[in-house]
Design goal:
Elements (H helix, E strand, L loop, with lengths): L11 E3 L2 E2 L12 H11 L12 E2 L6 H4 L5 E4 L12 H13 L4 E6 L2 H7 L9 E6 L7 H7 L6 E5 L16 E5 L11 H14 L3 E5 L35
Parallel strand pairs: 1-4, 4-5, 5-6, 6-7, 7-8, 8-9
Antiparallel strand pairs: 2-3
Length: 247
């Protein structure tokens, strides 16, 4: 659920929760919602409720069964800090991540206020990375919440990028991912917006990862920006966990 991932910046996905609700314009064409409805139509038992939020406690220990170290995107089909997920269940997810310390766990949320409220009571081990999604300048306040989280790696997913962000707050941020939107009804990304963020990251010496231009499918627009791909990752030399190259 699942061992391998087609997402360029991770190796695997782990979904102890599925389903979500929309909170901002970046959610309008949610890829996870589209996929959930497709899986429901295919008879997948995990998606009998479609994209309604569902806990899957039988999936909690899955990372402990994966012996090869991986970068694991946590809750690619939900938001770990969704208000409907009980605090106790969220702590169980963190307990598993603490035990499975040969992996690197990558968490993303748009619910940064709840992240900030719960962060002081969560175990932020070096292999647990925390990020927030920011689709436009209007939502950079999420970064302020993230900057107070004591995670070893704090990162931004600026995807889908829906407008210029000329002053992206980067103090205390260790990694930035940028991407355009894909799928039906996609909103085009201006190359100037991408370059503006890339240049801010270069100036601040922060690793920059350009995921996609977007299009009918995620890969249809390619990933080349100014003649090259940008696949930079946070430095991990100081971590006990070694991050494997994607295979």
């Amino acid at each position: 659920m699942s061992i391998d991932s087609g997402i360029e910046w991770t190796d695997a996905t782990w979904n102890p929760v599925t389903g979500c609700t929309k909170v901002s314009p970046g959610c309008k064409h949610c890829y996870a919602e589209r996929l959930a409805h497709r899986l429901r139509a295919m008879g997948n038992p995990r998606y009998t409720q479609g994209f309604a939020l569902s806990l899957h406690p039988d999936q909690l220990n899955l990372p402990l069964e994966w012996r090869r170290p991986r970068r694991i995107f946590v809750n690619s089909m939900s938001d770990l800090f969704h208000e409907a997920i009980p605090d106790g269940y969220l702590h169980r997810v963190f307990d598993v991540m603490v035990k499975a310390d040969w992996h690197v766990f990558q968490i993303l949320t748009k619910r940064s206020a709840r992240l900030a409220a719960l962060a002081p009571d969560l175990p932020w081990k070096p292999h647990v990375w925390q990020g927030v999604s920011v689709e436009s300048a209007r939502y950079t306040s999420r970064i302020g919440h993230l900057q107070d989280v004591p995670a070893a790696v704090r990162f931004l997913s600026v995807e889908p990028l829906l407008g210029p962000i000329p002053r992206l707050p980067l103090v205390g941020i260790h990694w930035v991912i940028v991407g355009g939107e894909s799928g039906g009804g996609r909103r085009p990304v201006d190359p100037g917006w991408v370059r503006e963020i890339r240049d801010q990251c270069v100036a601040a010496k922060i690793p920059f990862f350009f995921k996609q231009w977007g299009g009918r499918t995620p890969k249809s627009g390619g990933r080349v920006l100014d003649g090259r791909t940008w696949d930079e990752l946070p430095r991990v030399e100081a971590f006990r966990v070694a991050v494997p190259s994607p295979t």
